[in-house]
Amino acid sequence: MSPRPIRFFHRGAIVEAEPAAATRTVLDWLREDALCTGTKEGCAEGDCGACTVVVGELGAGGALEMKPVNACIRFLPTLDGKALFTVEDVAEVGRAGAGSGNGHAEPAEPAGHAGHAGQARHVSHTWQPGQLHPAQQAMVDCHGSQCGFCTPGFVMSLWSCYERHQEGGTRPTRQQLADDLSGNLCRCTGYRPILDAGEAMFDAPPRRLDTASALAALKTLAADAPLARPDFHAPRTLAELAALRFARPDARLLAGSTDIGLWVTKQLKDLPDLIYVGEVADLRTVEERTVDGTQVLSIGAGATLEAAWAALHQRWPLPSMRDMWLRFASLPVRQAGTMGGNVANGSPIGDSAPVLIALDAQIVLRQGERVRRMALADFYVDYMKNRLERGEFVQGVEVPLKNERTLRAYKISKRFDSDISAVSAGLAIRLDAQGIVSEVRLTYGGMAAIVKRAAAAEAALLGQPWTEATLAAGIAALAQDFKPLTDMRASAAYRAQVAGNLLRRFWLETRAEAPLAEHEVSVFARAASTA
Fold first, then answer.
1. Exposed/middle/buried for residue 403 (C-beta within 10 Å: 0-12, 13-18, 19+)
2. Res. 190 pLDDT band, cuts 50 70 90
3. Which candidate, 166, 250, 315, 528, has a CA 20 to 30 Å from the CA of 345?
4. Which residues are 56's β-sheet partners?
5. Contacts for 476-485: CB closer than 8 Å, 24+ residues apart
6. CA 485 to CA 448: how far, in whole Å?
7. Radius of gyration of the chain from Cα atoms?
C-alpha cells in the first residue's frame, strides 16, 4: 500500500501533495505546484524573511494558533495536519478570494489543480480589486515598500502580529513591532516607514481572519493516521518515537528544520531517512515538575525556542535574559526551531547552552525504554560531538528552579537582530554573607570548539572576596581557559577581549558596593534613552 499524501489546509480547502522528496521545501511547493508566487525566495536560509508564511495549528481549547515561519527551509511533510496562510490569503481574509501576490493590488496567479504527483487540489478563487488588508494598505500609505520584493514577507509578519493583538485586544508598542519584524531584513525603505505601517494598520477598521473553515479542516485532519513514508516518519507519541529511533539509529531527527533545512538548500545534501519529532505532544511541553526531589523547569526537546525562552524569562525576569530571548535569531526561527534541537546540535555558537549550563541544567536522554540524565556541561565532547549513544535522542532539558545564584546572559554580535553570536555568555555567581564567592559558573560560547565553562577563571574567583582585584585575576585566567579562533564573525583577539569585558560587566552589575543596574551598562538601553 502506498503511503497517504501530505494533507493540509490551504486557500480555503484541504489540499493533498506528494513531493518527490521529503526535503522539498514549502516555498518550492508554493511557487512551483500551487503557483502562489507571492512568497519570494531571498536567502534560502531563513534569514531575510522574504519567504515568510504563517502556519496554523489547533491549540489549547481548540483555538487556532498561528506562527510566522520561513517557507524556504521548512520541509513540506511537516505541514501535514496544519494550515498554511500566504500573502495570497491576506487581502481576502474571511471570504473566498485571492489576495495580492506582492503586497499590492495585483492579481495573483491561478492556483494549481489536481494533476501530477506533488500538485495541489484547490477550490477556485476569484480576486476582487481594491480590498487590501489593513497591513497591506498601511504599507502603501506609509511608503513602506520600494522594489516590493521583500514586501510579502513584511506583510505576513505584520498580519501575524495584527491577528495576535486583535485576538488579545491589545496594541503593540513600536518596539514590539520591531521585535516582530526581526526576521525581515531587507528594509530598503528604511525602518521608520515600515514601523509606521505597523502602527497605522491598527487605526483602520478591524479585519479579522474568519477561522471557522480552517478550524473545521484541522479537526478533520486530526483524524488522519500519522504520516509515514519510506523517507519520512512522524510518530505522535514518545513511545513510538523511542521505538522508531532505536530501530532506525542512522535516521536523521528533524525538529524545526532551522539548521537541517540549510543542509538541503545550501549544501544540497540528500537526507533519505527523516524522523520528525514535531508531532510528539509530550516533547512540546514546558512545565514545572519534581524530579528526584528537585523542582525543575522541564523543557521538552520539541518545545519551540520561543516557548522555551519565554518560560525561562518568566522565571528569571532579567533584562539580559529578555535580550537573549529576543535576540536569539528571529521570531520566525524561534517559532519553528526548538531548544532541544539547539542543544543537541552542539554548535559552539549556540545561544541556549551558555545560559542553561550557567543555570546547572541537566539534559535528559532516551534510548528505547531507558532514560538517563547528565549535566549539560558534560554532554559536549568536542566540536559537534556529544555523548549521545546509538539509537538515543534528546528528550528534554531540566533547569533547577531553586537557584540562589545571580545570573546574567550576554550576547555580542555584529547585528542586534537575527545574528549569530561572536561571543555569548551565561554567568552566575553566589556570594556568602561576608561577600565571598561561594559558587560561580562562567560559561562561554564562541570561545572554543564547544560551549564550555571557564574552569581556571572560576577557580580564580572561588573563595575570594568579590572585589576588583579578584575580577582582574579571573579575567587574566580566561587566557588559560580559551584559545579562540579568528573567523568572519570576530578575530581571536577581539573574542578574548570581549570575554574579559563581559566578566567585568558582570562584576559591575553584581559587586557589593554600588552595583550598576543592567540598563546602565547596556549600550542598547543607553542609546534608546538618548534617542
1. middle
2. confident
3. 315
4. 66, 83
5. 478/454, 478/503, 480/456, 481/447, 481/452, 481/454, 481/455, 481/456, 481/457, 482/444, 482/447, 482/448, 482/454, 483/448, 484/446, 484/447, 484/448
6. 8
7. 24
